[in-house]
């Protein structure tokens, strides 16, 4: 572990220790109030019009980015939180500190912002608070309804927040969807986006990059965006079955609405705005939380050569688990996942289908636990719910205790199926459910990797047992659909991954499924033409490029036997001190370097075009030499005909080196740099 506890301490900068200025101004007649970012490149203006309606606007790098955009709420049978307000007080503060996450892309994060709190009251005596935090790389704001006389239940029918962009832009988005984020990204004009899930990412014509998302989504509905006109969007919250959006008792606070603003695509990825807008770690004892690499009985089912259910092709058998545990022990992999280990998979789609406690008869739970212990390998529990959260909520405690009692500290969850009674996956009820799972998991010292999750909004800072999520069109789609095109991988870092770690499950070596035998079609999306649309070198690069504290080598283990390129995964660390984006253009290419101790690992990827990138290695420590192993596409590599052709070469580099790397169409490169003492 990088650090045994989350520590907050002041940043000793240039002149002073932590600056925390607080000045309160009463300004009951004021209609406007502004705030500048610490570097003064971003400027926020909050204003109230004649009707007492609330607006914010944002300017950045001397251009208008967000035109006046509304704030407020419509409650059930009550529109009084939308108009007739006046400013009663404003409070300003400035914070500049560095904190250390338990794990992550970087081991130190600077939190430097100016805050403006606007206290409002309307003619009906209703009060509202709006918090603005302006960073050098963006804005976060949240609206609060504090305790009011005579209001016990708050039912939000609509959050009025708007994002009215000043200009058209190129946008990367997936459609708004209340159930899933597993879609391919669209590249379009912002003005052609009718609706979107967040993060929604865009680049203005002048090259400013922005991303709209939310931070600290707690006890609230997920936000989608709906076009109102041209480049104007309003917040559209995912409803309860009765149409209400958010239900609260006495007080209400929205998640932070976030607008990340940077001057290039690389800075978008290096921004820590989302994490900074979350609360510090709430868990006291965290020594059990540890990033790791894993393999699992998983891909065989997606490929249709094994089954989750018990039968002649059952994947999760005792014998198979022993083989996976042995393989992990021999290959510097810490953990093994088994899906289909428990009874109920034959009932998928029915109510109360899954029993997350009882193993199948051919999966000897105790024997497998004992063998894993003997070999020093961790097991990862799996709780598929099929979406039946009500049944899972009854079983959860018992099922998690079973894992804990067996010394297991990792859990993958799944919600593949509709939530009963008309609830949506991204509704407030589900946000509550996912948090309850996380808190119960913390009680049983379990790290969670959630599939079909609620989107990542930085909760990992507060609950560092929230390791990774899927919530994107991941590797599994390559097993049984037309697959994910090469461009998908160079969009994910700039969109989905801005929210937090993605469990994409890279590492398929049998890219064309040449070793697949006796396959049975099991998924209706499968037209018999599935494959992985990358080269082998790009599969290695994904382990670096798509950050996750839990990285899976997802292929069946026999496909790694005798493969020299697997050495990259064997050597790969799971914890990072620093990450540095080396090259980035959304939808085209991406290269990132991550540091572990004295060594660095680089991943680079391209879309469907072959490319050469020049990587400036001046970030390496001056005066040191690095033994470098390059896993690269070569002249024989062809996405269509020969995707597994790979060259492994070595060289020495230092901080003066500019490394020219060649990537085939759909390709990439993975590089290990070991400091020579
Ligand atoms: C979908 C998940 O994303 C995948 O990882 C899992 O194998 C299946 N559901 C079955 O649980
Ligand atoms: Ca492209």
Automatic annotation (TrEMBL):
Domain Glycosyl-hydrolase 97 C-terminal oligomerisation as annotated: residue spans: 575-673
Keyword tags: Calcium
Entry keyword annotation includes Transmembrane helix: no
Molecular functions (GO terms): carbohydrate binding
Pfam families with a match to the protein in the record: GH97_C, GH97_N, Glyco_hydro_97
Glycosyl-hydrolase 97 catalytic domain boundaries: 298-472
InterPro entries: Aldolase_TIM, GH, GH-type_carb-bd, GH97_C, GH97_catalytic, GH97_N, Glycosyl_hydrolase_97
Cofactors that this protein relies on: Ca(2+)
Domain Glycosyl-hydrolase 97 N-terminal: 35-280
Subunit structure: Monomer.
Protein name as annotated: Alpha-glucosidase
Organism: Ancylomarina subtilis
């Amino acid at each position: 572990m990088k650090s045994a506890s989350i520590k907050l301490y002041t940043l000793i900068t240039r002149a002073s220790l932590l600056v925390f200025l607080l000045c309160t101004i009463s300004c009951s007649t004021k209609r406007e109030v502004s705030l500048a970012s610490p570097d003064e490149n971003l400027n926020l203006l909050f204003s109230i019009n004649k009707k007492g309606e609330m607006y914010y606007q944002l300017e950045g790098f001397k251009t208008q980015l967000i035109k006046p955009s509304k704030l407020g709420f419509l409650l059930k049978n009550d529109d009084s939180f939308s108009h007739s307000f006046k400013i009663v007080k404003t409070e300003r503060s400035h914070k500049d500190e560095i904190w250390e996450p338990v794990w992550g892309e970087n081991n130190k994060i600077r939190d430097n912002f100016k805050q403006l709190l606007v206290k409002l009251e309307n003619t009906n005596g209703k009060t509202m608070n709006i918090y603005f935090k302006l960073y050098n790389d963006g804005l976060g704001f949240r609206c609060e309804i504090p305790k009011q006389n005579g209001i016990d239940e708050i039912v939000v029918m609509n959050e009025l927040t708007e994002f009215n962009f000043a200009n058209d832009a190129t946008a990367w988005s997936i459609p708004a969807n209340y159930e899933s984020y597993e879609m391919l990204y669209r590249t379009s004009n912002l003005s052609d986006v009718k609706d979107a899930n967040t993060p929604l990412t865009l680049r203005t014509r002048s090259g400013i990059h922005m991303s709209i998302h939310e931070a600290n989504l707690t006890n609230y509905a997920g936000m989608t965006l709906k076009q109102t006109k041209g480049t104007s969007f309003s917040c559209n919250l995912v409803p309860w079955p009765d149409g209400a959006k958010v239900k609260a008792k006495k007080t209400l606070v929205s998640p932070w609405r976030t607008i990340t603003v940077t001057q290039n695509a690389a800075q978008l990825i290096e921004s820590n705005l989302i994490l900074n807008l979350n609360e510090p770690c709430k868990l006291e004892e965290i020594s059990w939380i540890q990033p790791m690499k894993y393999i699992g009985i998983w891909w065989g089912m997606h490929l249709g050569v094994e089954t989750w259910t018990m039968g002649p092709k059952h994947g999760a058998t005792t014998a198979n688990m022993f083989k996976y545990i042995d393989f992990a022990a021999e290959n510097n992999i810490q953990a093994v996942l088994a899906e289909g280990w428990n009874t109920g998979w034959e009932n998928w789609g029915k109510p109360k289908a899954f029993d997350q406690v009882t193993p199948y008869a051919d999966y000897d739970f105790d024997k497998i636990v004992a063998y894993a212990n003997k070999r020093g390998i961790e097991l990862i529990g799996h709780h598929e719910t099929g979406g039946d959260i009500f049944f899972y909520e009854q079983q959860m405690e018992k099922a998690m205790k079973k894992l804990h009692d067996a010394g297991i500290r990792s859990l993958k969850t799944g919600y593949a199926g509709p939530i009963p009674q008309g609830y949506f996956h991204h509704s407030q009820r589900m946000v509550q459910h996912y948090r309850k799972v996380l808190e119960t998991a913390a009680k049983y010292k379990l790290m969670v990797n959630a599939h079909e999750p609620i989107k990542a909004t930085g909760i990992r800072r507060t609950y560092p047992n929230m390791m990774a999520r899927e919530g994107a069109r991941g590797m599994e789609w390559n097993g049984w659909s037309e697959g994910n095109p090469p461009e998908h991988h160079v969009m994910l870092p700039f969109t989905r991954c801005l929210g937090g770690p993605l469990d994409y499950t890279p590492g398929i070596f049998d890219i064309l499924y040449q070793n697949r035998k006796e396959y049975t079609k099991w998924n209706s999306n499968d037209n018999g033409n599935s494959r992985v649309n990358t080269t082998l070198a790009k599969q290695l690069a994904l382990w670096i490029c798509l950050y996750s504290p839990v990285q899976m080598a997802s292929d069946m283990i026999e496909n790694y036997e005798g493969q020299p390129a697997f050495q990259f995964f064997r050597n790969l660390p799971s914890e990072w001190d620093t990450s540095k984006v080396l090259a980035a253009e959304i939808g085209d290419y991406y290269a990132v370097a991550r540091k572990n101790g004295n060594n660095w690992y680089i991943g680079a990827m391209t879309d469907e075009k072959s490319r050469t990138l020049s990587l400036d290695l001046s970030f390496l420590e001056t005066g040191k030499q690095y033994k470098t192993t390059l896993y690269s596409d070569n002249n024989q590599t062809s996405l269509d005909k020969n995707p597994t052709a790979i060259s492994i070469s070595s060289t020495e580099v230092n901080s003066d080196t500019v490394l020219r790397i060649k990537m085939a169409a759909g390709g990439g490169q993975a590089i290990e740099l070991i400091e020579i003492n």
